[in-house]
TrEMBL record, chain A:
<dbReference type="GO" id="GO:0005829">
    <property type="term" value="C:cytosol"/>
</dbReference>
<comment type="function">
    <text>The alpha subunit is responsible for the aldol cleavage of indoleglycerol phosphate to indole and glyceraldehyde 3-phosphate.</text>
</comment>
<feature type="active site" description="Proton acceptor">
    <location>
        <position position="56"/>
    </location>
</feature>
<dbReference type="InterPro" id="IPR018204">
    <property type="entry name" value="Trp_synthase_alpha_AS"/>
</dbReference>
<keyword id="KW-0057">Aromatic amino acid biosynthesis</keyword>
<dbReference type="InterPro" id="IPR011060">
    <property type="entry name" value="RibuloseP-bd_barrel"/>
</dbReference>
<dbReference type="InterPro" id="IPR013785">
    <property type="entry name" value="Aldolase_TIM"/>
</dbReference>
<protein>
    <recommendedName>
        <fullName>Tryptophan synthase alpha chain</fullName>
        <ecNumber>4.2.1.20</ecNumber>
    </recommendedName>
</protein>
<keyword id="KW-0822">Tryptophan biosynthesis</keyword>
Automatic annotation (TrEMBL), chain B:
<keyword id="KW-0663">Pyridoxal phosphate</keyword>
<keyword id="KW-0028">Amino-acid biosynthesis</keyword>
<dbReference type="InterPro" id="IPR036052">
    <property type="entry name" value="TrpB-like_PALP_sf"/>
</dbReference>
<dbReference type="GO" id="GO:0005737">
    <property type="term" value="C:cytoplasm"/>
</dbReference>
<comment type="similarity">
    <text>Belongs to the TrpB family.</text>
</comment>
<keyword id="KW-0822">Tryptophan biosynthesis</keyword>
<comment type="subunit">
    <text>Tetramer of two alpha and two beta chains.</text>
</comment>
<comment type="function">
    <text>The beta subunit is responsible for the synthesis of L-tryptophan from indole and L-serine.</text>
</comment>
<dbReference type="InterPro" id="IPR023026">
    <property type="entry name" value="Trp_synth_beta/beta-like"/>
</dbReference>
Length: 257, 401
């Protein structure tokens, strides 16, 4: 069974954290992963840096350019992740844009994911239809879960379709926005969370984009299986570097206040 | 191939593919917008009201038809017959106005209130700001920080027209990054905003939409050529290629006539092997840029590289998927022209014919030097815009002070 699916079967109020591979330093990746696990993160999203991250705001864009300047590439990332299974037990998913993956070769990319023990993928610019037509079999044969996004604008029929095709969780984008740090949750966001909750989907949902503190994390847990924190953690890394004890503190504060 | 098969292969299929190129590789956030556009664009642009209003605005507002001018001194120089399709004579000074008039009518029909656009040279930004003033709609134009500096007159025009110009400060701070910012804005404003894209790039249906709106160029030139020469077809049609909209419009009605050779001129910048270039056909490999599968310049790791050209309008690391397909299928040929060659060609046209072309268009003129033209050949070159916006560059580079 896929490690990721397992986490959802046994827990609620999940906390997932995103960070960009190779940030703040080229060799930070495993170090950060380990500290995130020690702090109590339930699973981690590792971002593959890209020159043109269309769905990301300035914070993640900036971490991406810095990681690229540090020399991070898919080849380097898979080299680092050879030690993944010896480093952490929590599930790890990769998030990245399609072009570097195609350039790497998607078959060998998926093969590498399976070998190092990556559980799932988020590829924002790979639409569901093209996934279905071209890549579903490849993903499934390698036991890699493809994670779909839904947004406040996604229609009910499409949500049902994505729900049926999902094998781990649905990524609920919290508002019409690119990634970034935002303060509270608005009335219309809450209504959207409630609407999705009331649809009683078969797949658990995680809320991401704009979740930055304990309060918003707890609040979205009332409607979804958990929350994903990205930009706020990147900002933490900007200020504190990849120091393990600071990372552990950050996660504990998020989870338990 | 029969004529019908030939014509079909130059139009995208239902999913927006031209052969292996095109499609819509977009994040889920943009799916409802793109679906909505896909559902409406053909219906609207084929409607009688649209056709009537588009035609009337092109004529009375933009100043169409633009002349097909026989450049006799230039013809003598090249020992052949050279015709200039004068898009530089349109309102706002480039072909970009054809597209923005069409899309603003579409946006209005779709009930949109806020218009966003990207711009490189500022010509598309000006053309967008112009039609927004005309339609009374809010206008925000994203422009790379570097381009804001090198195309200052157009920034001033956009501001006077009431548009807000927002600087794109990420990456190479040129057209590619302005496009990224426009797409991010669209993600954040999914309901009331219309993204008025400036070339035959981006996710389906934009490449097809923009090509159709620009096809007025060849609709006119085909007829004008016949009237003026009594010949059915020219031997060559030549246009510069940034994203490829003026070229798509210039080629469109000749695509199904293989006797017409189609030539695109892309920017080699300082030279193909200099590392400072925007020649995505010559150097690019297949990949995804701005939601479209096409040729683009990228590193071995699939990172999009920062392009360079003296001409802001050609300073783009990708190319529209239609052109990728015309190149692969052999229907069109693409030549690369350096900064220097373009500057010389601009000066030549100015001194021989009294026409100062845009730096972009000068690339098309310079392509003549790489073509083997025979004495009786008829060549139509699209002068996509006028050179006013480039005067500072001309003064500096040609030592005209
Ligand atoms: C005068 C002129 N020609 C050509 C271009 C290049 O665009 P395209 O290749 O879409 O025609 C531009 C773009 O800004 C332009 O301003």
């Amino acid at each position: 069974m896929n490690k990721l699916t397992n986490v959802f079967n046994h827990n609620s109020n999940l906390l997932s954290i995103y960070f960009t591979a190779g940030f703040p330093n080229a060799d930070s990746t495993l170090h950060v992963l380990k500290a995130l696990e020690q702090g109590g993160t339930d699973f981690v999203e590792v971002g593959i840096p890209y020159s043109d991250p269309l769905a990301d705001g300035p914070v993640i864009q900036n971490s991406s350019s810095r990681a690229l300047a540090n020399g991070m590439s898919l080849k380097m990332l898979f080299d680092q992740l050879k030690e993944l299974k010896n480093t952490v037990n929590i599930p790890v998913i990769l998030m990245g844009y399609l072009n570097p993956i195609l350039k790497f070769g998607i078959e060998s990319f998926i093969e590498n994911c399976r070998q190092v023990g990556v559980s799932g993928l988020i590829i924002p610019d790979l639409p569901y239809e093209i996934y279905l037509e071209k890549y579903q079999t490849l993903f499934e044969q390698n036991n890699i879960s493809n994670i779909f996004l839904i947004t406040p604008q996604t229609g009910e029929e499409r949500i049902r379709k994505l729900d049926r095709a999902s094998t781990s969780f649905l990524y609920m984008v919290s508002s019409a926005a690119v990634t970034g740090v935002r303060d509270g949750l608005s009335e219309s966001q809450i209504q959207y969370f409630e609407r999705i909750k009331n649809m009683q989907l078969k797949t658990p949902a995680m809320v991401g984009f704009g979740i930055s503190n304990h309060k918003t994390y707890r609040e979205v847990c009332r409607y979804a299986h958990g929350a994903i924190v990205g930009s706020a953690f990147i900002k933490h890394l900007e200020t504190h570097g990849d120091d393990a004890s600071e990372i552990i503190k950050f996660v504990k504060n998020l989870k338990n206040n | 191939m029969t004529k019908e098969e030939l014509s079909k292969s130059f139009h995208p299929d239902e999913k927006g593919f031209y052969g292996p190129f095109g499609g819509a590789f977009i994040p889920e956030m943009l799916i409802p917008n793109i679906e909505n556009l896909k559902k409406n664009y053909l219906k609207v642009i084929h409607s009688e009201t649209f056709k009537k209003e588009f035609k009337s605005l092109l004529q009375d507002y933009a100043g169409r038809p633009t002349p097909l001018y026989y450049a006799s001194r230039l013809s003598k120089k090249y020992n052949s017959h050279i015709w200039l399709k004068r898009e530089d004579l349109t309102h706002t000074g480039s072909h970009k106005i054809n597209n923005t008039i069409g899309q603003i009518l579409l946006a209005r029909e779709m009930g949109k209130k806020r218009i966003i656009a990207e711009t490189g040279a500022g010509q598309h930004g000006v053309a967008t700001a112009t039609v927004c003033a005309l339609a009374g709609l809010e206008c925000i134009v994203y422009m790379g920080e570097i381009d804001i500096k090198r195309q200052a007159p157009n920034v001033a025009r956009m501001k006077m027209l009431g548009a807000e110009v927002r600087a794109a400060t990420s990456g190479s701070r040129t057209l590619k990054d302005a496009t990224n910012e426009a797409i991010r804005d669209w993600i954040a404003h999914p309901t009331e905003t219309y993204y008025l894209i400036g070339s035959v790039v981006g996710p389906h249906p934009y490449p097809d939409l923009v090509a159709r709106l620009q096809s007025i160029i060849s609709e006119e030139s085909k007829q004008q050529f016949r009237e003026k020469t009594g010949n059915e077809f020219p031997d060559y049609v030549v246009a510069c290629v940034g994203g490829g909209s003026n070229a798509a419009g210039s080629f469109y009605h000749f695509l199904e006539h293989p006797q017409v050779k189609l030539i695109g001129a892309e920017a080699a910048g300082m030279g193909l092997s200099s590392g400072k270039t925007a020649a995505s056909m010559a150097l690019g490999e297949t990949g995804i840029i701005h939601g479209s599968m096409t040729y683009l310049m990228q590193t071995d790791d699939g990172q999009i590289t920062e392009p360079y050209s003296i001409s802001a309008g050609l300073d783009y690391p990708g190319v529209g998927p239609l052109h990728a397909w015309l190149n692969k299928s052999g229907r069109a040929k693409y030549l690369s022209v350096t900064d220097k060659e373009a500057l010389q060609a601009a000066l030549l046209l100015t001194r021989e014919e009294g026409i100062i072309p845009a730096l972009e268009s000068a690339h098309a003129l310079a392509a003549l030097n790489q073509m083997e033209i025979k004495p009786d050949d008829n060549v139509i070159i699209t002068i996509s815009g006028r050179g006013d916006k480039d005067m500072q560059t001309f003064m500096d580079q040609l030592n005209l002070v």
